[in-house]
């Protein structure tokens, strides 16, 4: 069997998200045949994404009856020689148009969910005015400085953590103007030893101000997740966030509808406290993926206060919803990369 034969076999492997086979889409970087060993390099960029794991599995299945051993690797074409975070494969921003929609809760559970899947994850609390991620993961260690004046971030639940809360007093107000925000965020990105990460999750402050602008101008964002509640007021603000990312050519990975309903633990009935279906309708109206609905669950608040992300719980309806959201985000990160490769 030669390279042409291998590529013919790979034409039977479809990418369901892009609607064609991996060869026609240009997702096969290289093929090498070495006796009974076939090495295949695929343009896959979302580690532990269920969709990309399924593609890799179908590639292996394509060779099941050949008697050949298949060695798969995943690598994306380099996008820049001067990347700000060369060791980070994907930077995902979690944003909201307004406060009070549970954005930080979604960011923490997304990062913890990706780590639970097996990914190497960093969680960057970029909400300089109200940093609360360390409390939400019960981070009892602070960053350490090296002799080279770089910062080693602490780890919790398999995630590397960085937050302004580590650098200011617990009760100190943070009163900064735009240039100061830009400077501190740049330092926290460039001076922190993030190492090799599959995903960095950014918890942005609510709104569309200086911090968001600095992030968009500084970091190579793979995409953004927009968090809203079902109510119209929150959706109005979500539209502002959507326009902000659109103006900076940032991919929006999808919409998360948080606080989507409350199941009464006493009677078992479901109550739409903040309305129903607004997040999905907003996603549909803007031709965006809907990443999932997360119920209004007191246990989520308890998990945030005690420092254990809800997504880590087992056999729980809300935790299941958070895991579905996490997988959908990872899948859409992969779609962004594979579409870029196929269109290049």
What is the secondary structure topology, with strand pairs?
Layout: H1 3-10, E1 14-15, E2 20-21, E3 28-34, E4 37-42, H2 50-62, E5 69-74, E6 91-95, H3 103-117, E7 121-125, H4 133-136, E8 144-145, E9 151-152, E10 155-156, E11 159-163, H5 178-190, E12 199-203, H6 210-218, E13 223-228, H7 232-247, E14 252-258, E15 262-263, E16 270-271, H8 278-285, E17 290-294, H9 298-306, H10 317-343
Parallel strand pairs: 4-5, 6-12, 6-13, 7-11, 7-12, 13-14, 14-17
Antiparallel strand pairs: 1-2, 3-4, 8-9, 10-11, 15-16
Task: Please characterize this protein's 3D structure.
By secondary structure, the chain is an alpha/beta fold. It has 2 domains: 3-74, 2-Layer Sandwich (GMP Synthetase, Chain A, domain 3), CATH 3.30.300; 91-336, 3-Layer(aba) Sandwich (Rossmann fold), CATH 3.40.50. The protein contains 10 helices and 17 strands. It has helices at residues 3-10, 50-62, 103-117, 133-136, 178-190, 210-218, 232-247, 278-285, 298-306, 317-343, and strands at residues 14-15, 20-21, 28-34, 37-42, 69-74, 91-95, 121-125, 144-145, 151-152, 155-156, 159-163, 199-203, 223-228, 252-258, 262-263, 270-271, 290-294. The strands form 5 sheets. An 8-stranded mixed beta sheet has the order 10-11-7-12-6-13-14-17, sandwiched between helices. The chain has a 3-stranded mixed beta sheet with strand order 3-4-5, covered by helices on one side. Strands 1-2 form a two-stranded antiparallel ribbon. A hairpin with a 2-residue loop joins strand 10 and strand 11 (159-163). The chain is globular, with a radius of gyration of 21 Å.
């Amino acid at each position: 069997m030669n390279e042409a034969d291998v590529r013919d076999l790979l034409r039977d492997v479809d990418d369901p998200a892009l609607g064609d086979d991996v060869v026609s889409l240009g997702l096969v970087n290289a093929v090498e045949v070495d006796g009974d060993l076939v090495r295949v390099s695929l343009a896959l960029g979302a580690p532990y994404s269920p969709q990309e794991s399924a593609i890799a599995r179908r590639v292996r299945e394509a060779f099941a009856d050949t008697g050949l051993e298949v060695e798969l690797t995943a690598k994306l074409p380099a996008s820049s020689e001067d990347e700000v975070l060369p060791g980070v494969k994907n930077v995902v921003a979690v944003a909201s148009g307004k406060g009070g929609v549970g954005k930080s809760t979604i960011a923490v559970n997304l990062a913890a969910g990706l780590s639970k899947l097996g990914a190497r994850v960093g969680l960057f609390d970029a909400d300089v005015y109200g940093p609360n991620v360390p409390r939400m993961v019960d981070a009892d260690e602070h960053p350490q400085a090296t002799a080279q004046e770089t910062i080693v971030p602490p780890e919790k639940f398999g995630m590397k953590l960085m937050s302004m809360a580590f650098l200011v007093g617990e009760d100190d107000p943070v009163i900064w103007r735009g240039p100061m925000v830009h400077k501190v965020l740049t330092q926290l990105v460039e001076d922190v030893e993030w190492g090799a990460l599959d995903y960095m999750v950014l918890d942005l402050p609510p709104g569309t101000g200086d911090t968001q602008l600095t992030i968009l101008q500084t970091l190579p964002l793979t995409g953004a997740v927009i968090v809203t509640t079902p109510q119209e007021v929150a959706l109005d603000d979500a539209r502002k966030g959507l326009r902000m990312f659109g103006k900076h050519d940032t991919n929006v990975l999808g919409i998360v509808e948080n606080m989507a309903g409350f199941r009464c633990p006493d009677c078992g009935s479901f109550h739409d406290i903040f309305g129903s279906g607004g997040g999905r309708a907003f996603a549909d109206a803007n031709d965006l993926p809907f990443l999932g609905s997360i119920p209004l669950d007191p246990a989520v608040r308890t998990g945030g206060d005690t420092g254990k992300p809800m997504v880590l719980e087992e056999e729980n309806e809300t935790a299941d919803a958070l895991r579905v959201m996490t997988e959908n985000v990872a899948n859409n990160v992969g779609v962004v990369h594979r579409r870029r490769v196929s269109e290049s």
